[in-house]
Structure formats: C-alpha cells, structure tokens
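User: quick one
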Amino acid sequence: MLKNDLFLKALKGEKVSRPPVWMMRQAGRYLPEYQVIRKKYDFFTRCQTPELAAEITVQPIRRFGMDAAILFSDILVIPQAMNIEVQMQPGFGPYLPNPIRTPKDLETVNIPDVEEELDYVMQAIKVTKEKLAQEVPLIGFAGSPWTVFCYVIQGQGSKTFNLAKKCCFSQPQLAHQLLQKITDTTIAYLKAKIKAGVDAVQIFDSWGGMLSPTDYQEFSWSYIQQIIDALKDLAPVIVFAKGGWYALEKMTNSGALALGVDWMISPQKARQLTQNKITLQGNFDPTRLYSSPKKIKSMVKKMIDEFGKDQYIVNLGHGILPDIPLENVTAFIEAVQQYKSE
Amino acid sequence: MLKNDLFLKALKGEKVSRPPVWMMRQAGRYLPEYQVIRKKYDFFTRCQTPELAAEITVQPIRRFGMDAAILFSDILVIPQAMNIEVQMQPGFGPYLPNPIRTPKDLETVNIPDVEEELDYVMQAIKVTKEKLAQEVPLIGFAGSPWTVFCYVIQGQGSKTFNLAKKCCFSQPQLAHQLLQKITDTTIAYLKAKIKAGVDAVQIFDSWGGMLSPTDYQEFSWSYIQQIIDALKDLAPVIVFAKGGWYALEKMTNSGALALGVDWMISPQKARQLTQNKITLQGNFDPTRLYSSPKKIKSMVKKMIDEFGKDQYIVNLGHGILPDIPLENVTAFIEAVQQYKSE
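Assistant: Done. Structure below.
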C-alpha cells in the first residue's frame, strides 16, 4: 500500500536498492517553515493541536523527501498524562516544577487512560496519515522509561542527572515503582499509537548511556524489554540508546527489529557487537553537518559502505541541531538517494 | 624515599599487596574543611595562592589517607596564561567572555613562558611537597588540548560543545593551529610541574568522548600523543579520556603508563581492550557513592576483584559530587585499604 516502503523493508532486513534515510528531530527548529508556526503557537500547543503537529511532521518530507516521517511530539507528554506538570521554557528546555522525590510524591502519579488523556496524539496520527497519503511510513515514538524518569525526578535537563541516579541508588524501591508506572503507561500509549496508524515505533533512551552496564540492565533495559515484549507482534520496534554501545549484544536478541547507534562507535564495531544479525540505524555526528556539502556527501557515502546498504537505515547519531544550513541537510539526504555501491 | 609508594608501584605494573586509591576531585567541595576556605577566598585566589592550594591538596589525605595527592588547580589556568580571560562564576562554572572563533582572535593567543606566568603553580607544588613530607606521591594534571579547546571556543560548559565542533568541521585549519598552541603550552607546563616536584601527571580528556573515533584521532588523540612523547621519559603519564573506550586499544601502546576508564565500560571489557598490558584506573560511578556505605564496600570489593589487584589504581570514573556524605567516602577508601583477595 505504501508507495515508498524502503524503510519497512530495511527494518525487516529485506534487500534494498539503497538504504532508507530519515533524521532524528527532522521535524523542527532548523526548518524555516517550522519557525513560522513556532512564532504563532507555544510548544505544547504545537504538540496538542492535531493539524499543527501533522503539518510539522510532513514539512521535512515535502522539502527533502526522507523515506519516513516521525510524528512531531515530545517524550514528556507521558508524564503530563500521568498528572505531572511539565513546562517547556524557551531557551531553558523542559521544567517540571513538582518533581517526584518521595513515596508521597509517587502517590500523586497516575497510570492514565492514554486514549483519553493523549487523544490529541491519536488525532494527530490520523491527520498526518491523511496528509502523507501513503507516500512514506509514519514513525511514532516514546522516551524509554529511564529517560522519562530522569526528567521526572530531576525536574529539568542535567549533565549528570545526579538526582535521578541518587533516587535509584538510595531509594531503589521508589525508583522501580515509578519506572514501572511509566512503563505501563508507555506500553498503553504505544499500543494506542499503533492502533491509530503509525507503521513503526522508536524508543528513545537518550540518557541510558550514563549508567554502568550493570545499572543499565536494572534501571533501563529491563523496562525497555517489557515494552518490546508487549509491542513486537504489533509493529516494528526500534530502540535507540545513546551511549549504550555496551548493551548492543543484549539488545540484538530482544525482539527489537532495529537498533539505533550514535557516532561514538564505528560501523564496523557496531556490526561486530550485533553479529550482523539486526538492522542498525545511525550514526552521523549531528555536528558533522557543519562540514561542507561536499564533505558531507563523501562521509555519508563512506558510512553506507561501512554499514552496508542492507539491514541499515541512514540517520544521525542524535537530533539535528537548529543552526544547520538547509543545503547541508540536502547534501545529507541526496547522498543517500544517489547512493550506488561499487 | 616515599613512605607509601603503592601508587607508583601500580603505575609501573609492580606487584602490590592491595591496589592504591585516590579520587578525582578529592580536594574539593564535598569536604567541610574546604568549604571553610571557599567562604573566604574566590576560586582563582585559591588556585593562585600557594599556601591555600597546598592546604586544599592535603586536606583529603589527612582525613581519609588516600595513596596519592593531586594538586588543587584547574585545567583553565592554561588558557589564562595564554592571554584568554577565564572567569569562574559560582553556580554557573567557567565563563570565557572572549572566546576564540576567528583567525584574528587566534592572533591574540600567546604561547607563554609558563614558569613565569604559572609560577604560582610551581610554588604550590613546592609547598605541597613540604606538607606531604614524603607520605604519598603528588599528581600534577592538565586538561587535554581538545578539552581546553572546547572551553576556549565555546566560552562556557556545554552539553554538546557544538561551537567547538563546528570550528573543527568548518574551520579545521584554525582549529589545528589553536590546538597546537594549547599543546605546546601544556607540554611546557607539565615539564615545569615535573621539575617542581610532581611524581606523576594526569591528562584529563573530559570531552574527548563526544567525538567519533575518526575525529577523536584527528582533534584529540594526536595532541595527547605529542604530550606523552614529550613527557614519558620524565615522569609517569596517566591519560583519562571520559567516554573514550573506543580509543583504549590505541592508547595502550602510546607510552602512557596508565589509562583512566569511566563506569560505562566493565572492568572485564577494559582489560580485554587493553590486552592486560597496562595499568588501569577507575571506574566507580560517582553517583554510586549515594548508595549505603555497606553497598559501597561490597561494590568496591567486586570492582577490585574484576580489575585484579595488580596494574590497577582504584578511583572514581569521574569527579566526586559535592553532596556525597563523608561516611560514604570513608567506606569507599576503607574498602580498598582493607582489601584482601580470596
């Protein structure tokens, strides 16, 4: 039914003429057409208005022709739906005025009816699917329970998320109870998104990579595994754990169809750790988009050669930065579209 | 001559009864006796007054009896000496009001006579050595050229150091010229420190781990290697690259006597990547010091068992956090002092 099914083929490990490409945070701040909308509506209004979210989602597809769209939204809609206030402060980022730190705080946290509380997301998916008109697949996403937990405990972004980790190490029971509540909500949320029409889901574990391998297993991976188990028969699941190279071997046999990798691991090493058994997604350094278009093209070509064109989805190793020139994005996407192996 | 030479023995790979222990940032904010000095003198006054720097350096040795002292100072004394203004703003961190961004900016950067410009460091070393009275060795340190460069370009701390990386990728010539100036200054600085009496030097590559393996080689490691080459016959060199697991194989044969590792790599994996050929230092997660003293002791014991007692220096995987309870530090140090292999 989809006109361009490169992305779904790569997820399943089928042979392709060239790898598909999309970019983390492709719907967003580097686009002038996004800035027009941004000036009129605040962040959560953009997320919560289906027409706006859908429009933002399809903007990069129109301009660059990526092989997949990803729904414009935010990982922190989950705590919002769980009765935790989340503000998005311009120039500062997320701010949660009432972080969860004690068993009493935890009592105020709900496991919501996501189809009701996050109905606006489901509506946005439906409008987006109409706009996309079967051109490319649509990805839905959620933060990993650990990554959402980091914000819920810390109350804001952080270099070390020391309060989140302090909670795990000094109040492990509280930490696990909260992580389980977030996990249960996330499973219901992603199931509803799949029902509403997304073609694949990605779990963003942005802060997993600050845990030791042992603590990662206990506080992050065990919850991601629950999500994969609940979803794997419903839609393809991609897991991206920034900095999580040390868990790649384990992730390979988890039931996820693809694993995201960041640029701190070479393609060869990533293939080795995953034994060539799974589709990989990544791993261009987002700041390497500051290079010249010519340099970008040659680096993308080399990256595809190194990962191999099959079982591979071209992407950045983290979200695109707001000040990347449009012609550099064009160079990145075109290098993939024009790829020919030798 | 030294009464306790465990640290130097471990550096040389000699057999020891138990591994030595020290903690990154052991001279600092978690100590009440440091807070007394902090209330009276601002940050750079503490660095620049030999009596104060020496007193702060020996405070943790007196209280906990670590096996090595590390001179209280800052990596940003180097750009200061190079004619780049550096302020330390309480609650914000380093701030460089005139960051280097253009060839014209670069012209204002000097390679100083470090023995003159940083004479206060050499004096601090002499006072510290007297205070230590040959009890334990003294470590001197510098930031890696890349890490210092990050601050000099960015002008402040950052989650991504996007401006520093942008400089490398869009003005590589400028980047390399500045990196070379920092390297030349750092070599002269560490030579002077060794002459003044430090027993070993550590290079802190705090931000190397945000570069891809290829870019790490070009923008960080090649300069660290120059420093090692210049110093290795004068004193033991320790290199700590946070997040630099992917470069461990290369570092093993660099002439450094020891490599620091963070807690995102298991002891077994670190030993494997370095082929059991070099002394390793680390790698306790600093936030794991929020655990109970009992838990800390069992984790330290396990960590030593996994690294092995020889060719090993017990340390954290990054600096100690300011709100760690003193009894937890005691547990960490005592677990090493009481270590017996089975």
